[in-house]
TrEMBL record:
InterPro entries: AAA+_ATPase, ABC_AA/LPS_Transport, ABC_transporter-like_ATP-bd, P-loop_NTPase. One of its GO terms (cellular component) is plasma membrane. Residues 12-245 form the ABC transporter domain. Keywords: ATP-binding, Nucleotide-binding, Transport. The keyword ATP-binding applies. The keyword ATP-binding applies. This is Amino acid/amide ABC transporter ATP-binding protein 1, HAAT family. One of its GO terms (molecular function) is ATP binding.
């Protein structure tokens, strides 16, 4: 029991992360920390390096410099599968569901991949769909899901067996304002009820500012600002990054 508490207090830390693609630096010396039970936002203009950062944090992209650690573990040496087993889950911009399965099986497969029995995985999948308020989706074929349900199922799948950290890549893309508000409520519950540390990458800056305890702003591969909603909205550097320094007076 004491050990479980310790695990929940470990943070996911990127320290001095640099990623170069040939001569081009997508990230330069990025340092950030994701703590349990809190929502962190990662925003920035197009091409700022947000997806590259998620890929580094989830083992899909090896950093050229710096490192990512989970407690004392170097995340860079773990495969994407081992990372998930270590408690780091992500969603993708495209749903990536198994279209031949229904929703329950899509979730259960993840549980089996994590080493749980099929029965335990199905029980957890049903519990999770109930918790998210969408039990009616259980037997719906994944192939026929409306877009926003597909997004929700992607999140449910990432939440199987309560990961320590959840990284959400553009989860609100294509959602209406009402759907984005529902998503915001869900993200808050994931952090507060499950104790999961969330990193939210979004173009919808309003959504990020409304749910995040701490926001990082990337521009041209570097963190140019970080802090709570008040700090970000008051930041001249953030305004310049989004609108250009010349537009400041406008
Ligand atoms: N595999 C790659 N090879 C070369 N350049 C890449 C590669 N992946 C990303 N880049 C470049 O790195 C920069 C950062 O890309 P990234 O997709 O991380 O930005 P982003 O902030 O997620 O952008 P967006 O908001 O448009 O999704 C971009 O200039 C992109 O073209």
């Amino acid at each position: 029991m004491a050990q479980q508490t310790d695990i929940r207090q470990v943070s996911l830390d990127a320290s001095g992360v640099t990623v170069a693609f040939g001569g081009f630096r997508a990230l330069t010396d990025v340092t950030l920390s994701i703590t349990p039970g809190a929502v962190h936002g990662l925003i920035g203009p197009n091409g700022a390096g947000k997806t590259t950062m998620v890929n580094v944090l989830t083992g899909f992209q090896a950093p050229t410099g710096g490192q990512v650690t989970l407690g004392r573990r170097d995340v860079g040496v773990l495969s994407a599968h081992d990372l998930r087993r270590a408690g780091i889950a992500r969603t993708f911009q495209a749903g990536r569901l198994f279209t031949g399965f229904d929703v329950l099986d899509n979730l259960a497969v993840t549980g089996v991949g994590l080493g749980h029995s099929r029965h335990a995985s199905e029980v957890e999948a049903m519990r999770l769909l109930d918790w998210m308020g969408v039990p009616h989706l259980a037997e719906v074929p994944a192939a026929g899901l409306p877009y926003t349900d597909e997004r929700r199922v992607g999140i449910a799948r990432a939440l199987m067996f309560a990961p320590q950290f959840l990284l959400l890549d553009e989860p609100a893309a294509g959602m209406s304002e009402t759907e984005a508000a529902d998503l915001a409520a869900l993200i808050n519950r994931v952090a507060s009820d499950l104790g999961t540390g969330v990193l939210l990458i979004e173009h919808n800056v309003g959504l990020v500012l409304s749910v995040s305890d701490h926001v990082y702003v990337l521009d041209a591969g570097q963190i140019i600002e970080e802090g709570d909603r008040g700090v970000i909205t008051a930041s001249r550097a953030v305004r310049d990054a989004y609108f250009g320094a010349d537009q400041e007076a406008a």
